[in-house]
C-alpha cells in the first residue's frame, strides 16, 4: 500500500463496512439480547434496547425444556460421526496422497460426486431402511447418516492437507525402518495435526447444524438441537425469551468454532478449489 | 487392517519392484473401507428410490401394491402442485444465488479494503453462516418479522408505515430472504479468501496506471474471482435445491403450495401422505436435477486437481 488513499474514501469505506456488518449481524445480536429479557420485556412494543437483564429465560430452558437431553444428543451425534469419519478418512487420504495410482484422481472425483446426491432424493429409502433396522429416532442412525454424508468432504480436505506434507520426510522415516503404521501415526499425524483438527472442526460444524436428516429421522428420543429448536415453530415460539435463550445456547459453540477456523474452512467447503 | 500394515517390507530389504507392488496393495487396503462404504451409500438408496418409483406403494394402504410402470411419474408430472413446486425451487435457487453471489462479490471487495475494526466487522458478516437453519428461520419469523412483536414491524411503525405480515403475504420471497441471509456470508467467506490471494503488485500496478476503482474491479478483480464464483454458485446450488428446514419451520410450504419447493413436496408426499411411490418418483427427479449441476462442479474441481 504505497499509495495513500484519500481520507474521504477511507471514511466512506469504514462507514459502509461497519454499517453492513451491523445490519447483517443485528438478528444474532437481537437474539442474544432478547435471551436476557423477561417474557414481558421480550414482547414489549416498541422493543426495548435497554432493560434490567435477567436469567429467567435460561432458567426455564434448563428446567422445563430438558435442554440437556437435546444438547447431549447433538454432541453424541456430531462427535461420534466426526470421529468415525476421520478414522476412516485418514488412511484413505494417506493412500491417495502418498501411494497414488492411476485411479486416484477418478476416485477423488467420484467421492465428490457422491456428496452431490440430494438428501431429499433418497429420503424414502433411508427412512424405510432406518425404520426396518430400528435405527429410526436413535443417535446411532443419525450419526451413521451424518458420517456418510460428510465422509467425502473429510477425505478431500485431509487429502489437500496431506499433499502439503513433503513426501521426503515420510520416506526418511521409512529408511529408518518405520512401518507404514508407524509412518502414519508417528510422522504424518503430528505434522498434519493442524489440518486434521480443522477438518474435524468443519465436520463438527456441519453435523451440529444438520437439519434435514435430524428433522426427518428423529422425533423425541434422539432429537438433536436443530429438531428441538424446530419445535418452537408451534405457538410456543411466541415465548420470545425462551426461544432466544434456547437458540443462543444452541448456536454459541459453533459460532465460536466458526470464528476461530474461518480461514481453514474455505478449503473444506470448496473441496480445495479455493485456498 | 493393522495386520496388513505390519506386512509392509522393511526398507531396503526387498527389491524396488516388490515394494511397489506392496505399496499398491497397501494403498488399496487403506482406501477400501471409505470407498466401500461410499459405494453402498451411493448405490443402495439410489436403486431403492428407482425401484419404489415404479411401484404402487402406500404405507397406509397395503391393498395397493404391484408394478406401477410410469404411473407415479405421470401423476407427478401432470400434478399442478408439482409444477408449482418445481417453479418455486428454481425461483428460490435463482433468487438466493443472485443475492448471495452478487452481494458476496461486492462485500468481498469491500472487506478487502483496510479500515478501522475490519477484523471484527468481517467476523460479524460471516456469522450468520454458522447459525443452524432452524434457529435462523425462527429468529426471522418471530423476533424480526412478527407483524406485532417483530423488530422490523416496530421500525415500520416508527416511521409511520403499517407493518406487513411478511410470511403470510410474501411467503416465498420471505423464505428467500432468510436463506439468502444464511448464504451471503458463505459467498463472502469464500470470495474474500479468493480476493486476498490476488497479487498485490498487479493491483498496485493498475492503480499506478491510473485505473479507477471500477476499472480495477471489472478488469482485474472480477476475472481473478471467476473460478471462485463458479465454485460458490455450484456448491450453493447443490444445497439450495434441497432447502427444507427453513420452509418446514416458517410456512410449512403454505399457504397452499405458495412456498413449497421440490424437497418439501417430496417430504410431504412421503412422510405426511405415506405415498412411497409418488415421493420416490419426485426423488428421482430431484436427483436428476442435482446431477446436472454436479457434472459442472466436478469438472471445475477436476481442473483444479491438475495443479
UniProtKB/TrEMBL annotation, chain A:
Which membrane topology describes this protein? Multi-pass membrane protein
The cellular location(s) given in this protein's UniProt record come to: Cell membrane
Assigned keywords, A-Z: Cell membrane, Membrane, Transmembrane, Transmembrane helix, Transport
Does Cell membrane show up as a keyword for this record? yes
Output the PANTHER family linked to this UniProt entry. Answer: INNER MEMBRANE ABC TRANSPORTER PERMEASE PROTEIN YCJP (PTHR32243:SF18), MALTOSE TRANSPORT SYSTEM PERMEASE-RELATED (PTHR32243)
Task: Note the Pfam families from the entry.
Answer: BPD_transp_1 (PF00528)
Start and end residues of each ABC transmembrane type-1 domain: 71-261
Transmembrane parts of this sequence: 12-33, 70-96, 108-130, 142-162, 183-206, 239-260
Q: Which family does it belong to?
A: Belongs to the binding-protein-dependent transport system permease family.
Gene3D superfamilies annotated for this entry? MetI-like
Entry protein name: Sugar ABC transporter permease
Q: What is one term from the GO cellular component aspect held by the record?
A: plasma membrane
- Which InterPro entries does the record associate with it? BP-dep_ABC_trans_perm, MetI-like, MetI-like_sf
Residue span of the signal peptide, if any?
none
GO annotation (BP), single = transmembrane transport
Amino acid at each position: 500500500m504505497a499509495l495513500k488513499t484519500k481520507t474521504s474514501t477511507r471514511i466512506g469505506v469504514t462507514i459502509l463496512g461497519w454499517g453492513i456488518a451491523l445490519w447483517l449481524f443485528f438478528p444474532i445480536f437481537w437474539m442474544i439480547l432478547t435471551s436476557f429479557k423477561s417474557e414481558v420485556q421480550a414482547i414489549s412494543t416498541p422493543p426495548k434496547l435497554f432493560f434490567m437483564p435477567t436469567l429467567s429465560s435460561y432458567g426455564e430452558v434448563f428446567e422445563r425444556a430438558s435442554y440437556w437431553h437435546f444438547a447431549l444428543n447433538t454432541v453424541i451425534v456430531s462427535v461420534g460421526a466426526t470421529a468415525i469419519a476421520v478414522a476412516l478418512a485418514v488412511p484413505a487420504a494417506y493412500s491417495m496422497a502418498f501411494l497414488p495410482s492411476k485411479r486416484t484422481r477418478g476416485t477423488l472425483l467420484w467421492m465428490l460426486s457422491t456428496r452431490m446426491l440430494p438428501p431429499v432424493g433418497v429420503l424414502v429409502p433411508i427412512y424405510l431402511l432406518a425404520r426396518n433396522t430400528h435405527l429410526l429416532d436413535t443417535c446411532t442412525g443419525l450419526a451413521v447418516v451424518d458420517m456418510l454424508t460428510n465422509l467425502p468432504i473429510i477425505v478431500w480436505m485431509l487429502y489437500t492437507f496431506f499433499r502439503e506434507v513433503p513426501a521426503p520426510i515420510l520416506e526418511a522415516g521409512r529408511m529408518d525402518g518405520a512401518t507404514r503404521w508407524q509412518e502414519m501415526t508417528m510422522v504424518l499425524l503430528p505434522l498434519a495435526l493442524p489440518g486434521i483438527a480443522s477438518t474435524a472442526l468443519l465436520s463438527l460444524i456441519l453435523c451440529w447444524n444438520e437439519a434435514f436428516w435430524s428433522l426427518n429421522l428423529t422425533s423425541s428420543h434422539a432429537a438433536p438441537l436443530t429438531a428441538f429448536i424446530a419445535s418452537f415453530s408451534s405457538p410456543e415460539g411466541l415465548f420470545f425469551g425462551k426461544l432466544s435463550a434456547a437458540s443462543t445456547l444452541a448456536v454459541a459453540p459453533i459460532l465460536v468454532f466458526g470464528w476461530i477456523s474461518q480461514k481453514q474452512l474455505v478449503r473444506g467447503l470448496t473441496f480445495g478449489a479455493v485456498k | 487392517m493393522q495386520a496388513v500394515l505390519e506386512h509392509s517390507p522393511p526398507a531396503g530389504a526387498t527389491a524396488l519392484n516388490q515394494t511397489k507392488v506392496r505399496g499398491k496393495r497397501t494403498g488399496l487396503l487403506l482406501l477400501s473401507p471409505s470407498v466401500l462404504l461410499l459405494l453402498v451409500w451411493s448405490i443402495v438408496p439410489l436403486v431403492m428410490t428407482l425401484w419404489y418409483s415404479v411401484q404402487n406403494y402406500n404405507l397406509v394402504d397395503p391393498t395397493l401394491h404391484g408394478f406401477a410402470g410410469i404411473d407415479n411419474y405421470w401423476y407427478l408430472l401432470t400434478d399442478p402442485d408439482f409444477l408449482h413446486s418445481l417453479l418455486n425451487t428454481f425461483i428460490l435457487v435463482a433468487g438466493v444465488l443472485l443475492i448471495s453471489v452478487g452481494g458476496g462479490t461486492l462485500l468481498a471487495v469491500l472487506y478487502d479494503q483496510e479500515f478501522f475494526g475490519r477484523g471484527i466487522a468481517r467476523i460479524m458478516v460471516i456469522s450468520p453462516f454458522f447459525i443452524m437453519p432452524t434457529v435462523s428461520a425462527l429468529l426471522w419469523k418471530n423476533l424480526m418479522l412478527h407483524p406485532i412483536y417483530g423488530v422490523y414491524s416496530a421500525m415500520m411503525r416508527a416511521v409511520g408505515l403499517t407493518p406487513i405480515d411478511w410470511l403470510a403475504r410474501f411467503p416465498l420471497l420471505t423464505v428467500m430472504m432468510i436463506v439468502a441471509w444464511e448464504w451471503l456470508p458463505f459467498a463472502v467467506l469464500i470470495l474474500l479468501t479468493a480476493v486476498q490471494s490476488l497479487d498485490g503488485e498487479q493491483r498496485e500496478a493498475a492503480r499506478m496506471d491510473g485505473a479507477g476503482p471500477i476499472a480495477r474491479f471489472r478488469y482485474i478483480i472480477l476475472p481473478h474471482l471467476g473460478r471462485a464464483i463458479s465454485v460458490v454458485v455450484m456448491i450453493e446450488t447443490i444445497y439450495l435445491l434441497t432447502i427444507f428446514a427453513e420452509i418446514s419451520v416458517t410456512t410449512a410450504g403454505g399457504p397452499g403450495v405458495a412456498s413449497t419447493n421440490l424437497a418439501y413436496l417430496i417430504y410431504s408426499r412421503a412422510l405426511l401422505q405415506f405415498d412411497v411411490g409418488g415421493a420416490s418418483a419426485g426423488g428421482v427427479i430431484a436427483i436428476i436435477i442435482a446431477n446436472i449441476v454436479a457434472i459442472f462442479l466436478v469438472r471445475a474441481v477436476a481442473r483444479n486437481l491438475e495443479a
